[in-house]
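Late entry, written up from scratch paper. The run itself happened at the end of the previous shift, but nothing got recorded in the book at the time, so transcribing now.
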Amino acid sequence: MSAVSLRRATEADVRTIVEMLADDPLGAAREDLSEPLAAGYLDAFGAIDADPNQLLAVAERDGEIIGTLQLTFIAGLSRKGALRGQIEAVRVAAPARGIGLGSQMIDWAVEECRARGCATVQLTSDASRTDAHRFYERLGFKASHLGFKRTL
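Output as recorded:
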């Protein structure tokens, strides 16, 4: 197997990222893969890419994108003004599942957070994703909070 590298996503990567987001029952119901790609995706990418507190990353092997995640760096007053890292939208392309890429991506994200001076790293996972919960717990994350969302 060739080496996997992680890098900042570019606009050219957006369609592939959206395809990975749509490749599960939850994502299939909320993403739109029609041509051309909905302008909202490119607008969101532009906002993410322009914000120094955001990092949309892709995992690449042999020129092919096989994973993605987004990091958000959140300043806050709690914990003595500590910076925290938020990991979101972790996806591995179907052909690359089961090779340890998810662990590699999370390890990379944690190191990025550490390098930025984060005191803690957090993530959320849909309550229905029990396999993902076990995966994150194996990587040292604790289910310490109960999250709530409200669709607007």
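The longest strand covers residues 64-75.
(Scratch paper discarded after transcription.)
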